[in-house]
Write a structure and sequence with these properties.
alpha/beta, eight-stranded mixed β-sheet, Lyase, Ornithine Decarboxylase, Chain A, domain 1
């Protein structure tokens, strides 16, 4: 494996001496991922999904390489304004979902572009959108992802305007005096087939024909990252080629992407220490100092995160064990049946791909502390 956390192992072990548990982010890795995404010839703008990780240093490095921002709450917008007080409001897209009326009023009053996720706002609050340019989120009615909870399109998903309601959407927008300038979609997370975004682009282009003012097709995010050692990285070049062909057919539209996890997941790890080791019949459990209070993704999404014994990286993996935390829940499992070296109390464990939807989803459940966030720059 050739990952940043292997190259910087000594630094991580030093940090583990200072903190019993910690999220560590490598800004160099974030900058590299953002630069690669920004280099796509077919994509006019890249907007970072702030919900993935809103650490101030992460946001600053993304902004420094020209990445813009997609926010799903007023809290995220206010946080951006605190971290980047000089940020142009045009670099923010507000994409709420079932949000109260006041949030739309607040964002519109500040000149921030708003995405409408269903017919209700135009039906009930048409006055808010009079003489406004808006985005609309469409459900392409096909989704993908590594777990049902991350599939954000289709009949089982709460997101987006169904395709059979587009005519009514047009009528409502016209009646309200709103101009639809962008069509948006997001189909899921952890998608590894580049053709997904080509398909979405073609669907959105068909929807855009109903609205003469559309300039932008926002294809959402969900680009997968390698989860296991043997996984190949996502093929950005193939994605760029497919979307470049689309742009040749539809030169009137700018394409946007909204990656979150792709930009920050690999750049983050969760460090913790072994507390106890337990045999139970044929099973072996290795307990560590933090659990689903810090990283809920394995329990919530059945998400896979590589787990390595950082203290014994050079020793052969010889024993299968389930890695568990100290939380009083049967689902407090960070990794099941993982092949690890012979492990001892106080060994440092590293949980990989924890830079997205890790710290931001953590809690004080069982009144346990949330690990601090540490940023390394070299």
């Amino acid at each position: 494996m050739d990952t940043w956390w292997i190259r910087k192992r000594d630094k991580l072990l030093e940090l583990a001496e200072q903190y019993p548990n910690a999220y560590v982010y490598d800004l160099e890795s974030i900058r590299s991922a953002a630069t690669a995404m920004s280099s796509l010839r077919s994509v006019k703008r890249v907007l970072y999904a702030v919900k993935a990780n809103f650490n101030p240093d992460v946001i600053k490095v993304l902004a420094s390489v020209g990445i813009d921002f997609d926010c799903v709450s007023l809290g995220e917008i206010e946080h951006l304004n605190t971290v980047l007080p000089d940020l142009d409001k045009n670099r923010i897209l507000f994409t709420p979902n079932f949000a109260p009326r006041d949030e739309y009023v607040w964002a519109i009053g500040r000149g921030i572009t708003v995405t409408i996720d269903n017919l209700y706002p135009l039906q009930q609050w048409p006055e808010l959108f009079a003489n406004r340019e808006i985005f609309i989120r469409i459900d392409p009615e096909q989704g993908d992802g590594h777990h049902e909870y991350v599939v954000t399109s289709g009949s089982g998903s709460k997101f987006g305007v169904p395709l059979n309601e587009v005519s009514e959407l047009k009528r409502l927008a016209t009646a309200a005096g709103a101009e639809v300038v962008g069509i948006h979609a997001h189909t899921g997370s952890g998608i590894v087939n580049p053709k997904n975004w080509q398909t979405v682009a073609n669907i959105l282009a068909r929807v855009a024909k109903h609205f003469s003012g559309v300039k932008t097709l926002d294809l959402g995010g969900g680009i997968g990252v390698p989860e296991r050692t043997a996984d190949a990285p996502f093929n950005l070049q193939e994605l760029d080629s497919l979307l470049t062909n689309f742009c040749s057919d539809y030169p009137q539209y700018d394409l946007w992407l909204e990656p979150g996890r792709y930009l920050v997941a690999v750049a983050g790890v969760l460090l913790t220490r072994v507390t106890q080791i337990k045999g139970k019949g044929a099973d072996c459990y290795i307990g560590v100092n933090t659990g689903i209070n810090s990283l809920i993704r394995p329990a919530l999404y059945d998400a896979y995160h590589e787990i390595v014994n950082l203290s014994r990286m050079n020793e052969g993996a010889s024993k299968s064990a389930t890695v568990v935390g100290p939380i009083c829940e049967a689902g407090d499992k960070l990794g099941i049946n993982r092949l690890l070296p012979e492990t001892q109390e106080n060994d440092v464990f590293l949980i990989a791909n924890a830079g997205a939807y890790g710290h931001v989803m953590s809690s004080n459940y069982n009144l346990r502390d949330i690990p601090p966030e540490i940023v390394i720059c070299d």
